[in-house]
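Researcher: We're reviewing a set of sequences before deciding which ones to prioritize for further study. For each one, I'd like a predicted 3D structure that I can look through quickly. This is glutaminase. If possible, include the structure in token form so it fits the rest of the review sheet.
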Amino acid sequence: GCPRLRLSAQRLESPAAGILPSLEDLLFYTIAEGQEKIPAHKFTTALKSTGLRTGDPRLKECMEMLKVTLKTTSDGALDRHLFKKCVQSNIVLLTQAFRKKFVVPDFQSFSTHINDIYDNGKKLSGGQVADYIPQLARFSPDLWGVALCTVDGQRHTVGDTKVPFCLQSCVKPLKYAIAVHDHGTEYVHRFIGKEPSGLRFNKLFLNEDDKPHNPMVNAGAIVCTSLIKVMNFMNKLAGNEYVGFSNATFQSERESGDRNFAIGYYLKEKKVRLTVVLLQVGLPAKSGVAGGILLVVPNVMGIMCWSPPLDKLGNSVRGIQFCTVKSVINLLFAAYTGDVSALRRFALSSMDMEQRDYDSRTALHVAAAEGHAEVVRFLLEACKVNPVPKDRWGNTPMDEAVHFGHHDVVTILRDYHTQYSPQDAAATAAICFEGSSLFFLQNFIEMFLHLNVALSQKTLSSKLDLNFLVPSFLYKDPLFMFISSS
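Model: Here's the predicted structure for glutaminase, in token form for your review sheet.
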């Protein structure tokens, strides 16, 4: 497992008597586990267990010094002084990592869950690879990969993540983000609206002001492209790792992209600003017909799923399955951290607040075990969840609260249990579900103006192809992330 930075009584002494050891020394003792030296591979393995990669740009100085230092050793190991020399330039970041102060503290367990979800998705069949763009039709339907990166730079990949694929409509939110970054929100919305169109993503139609309805439909994405330089910014977003351009896909798109050319000429006729050659490319934050789905968990991580077979709505079959299961992780993580705001967003987006993980543990189990009284009260009083669900060991939230000595939580659970009515809970859930749609529509315009909200929603339960802009208080729920493809 990942070593955790800690002090023991015998380690409080440093070479200079009476002086506490430095952070570098503490880190050395943590990884060395009583040995005089640390093999280089043991250090890098421990580093990866925290979620950090040796190629992380923030660790460049540390990794370069490690390479230089290893050339001076015969056994490929570092004593305390050599180790300190290697890590001192990045000691703050490394200390945070090994003290488990990142947004996902136990990254190894988290990665194991991700791999389990991935394996379940791999078993799925069905769907069809998009064939109206000839280049996309060449991809194998068996390809399936998932990659994620947290806000602290913890990364994990599984599956076919080394196979390049075209992002397609996943580009639209990032185009909007780049445009706002370069020019500001007010300037961008001189040319693009910020309302749902209620029409197909590629409809040849503008709003009453002769502007594209929003950046998520093809017309809006074309205008966004005219305002920005994509590749330079994309390289920065990717940490200067590989971001390519598929000329073969471009040529294939050009041969089959009559509608997009028509949209471009229509925009020109209406004197909507266009300054670049019409070119449909792809960036993350929504789904695309190549099989990609980018998920954003605000203030936590971004996840990219890719598998070419699509369902009837144009979304990756495996990607949808992965994202649906991921909602359980988001729910339990919010309960674990005591994030009532996130839980409120989940509830308003009609998420099932009684979802269970592999051990049949609910958010109420987790909140009770962690002693988050406010979360427990919210789940019971606002969400009307069952106060006595049992996990696979037969434990209830009350058992968890008693075991960990959270007496205030025990009191809340005991008081609520006497009032609980399954019928009332079902009625409350139905009211929340109906009310969330109106709440959503009333707030989306305001929230859309935030840079990290450039997402759209495809209504999964409808046969219509509707586009909505999703406010940040809803889009933690991956069910709101299945965006219309183009």
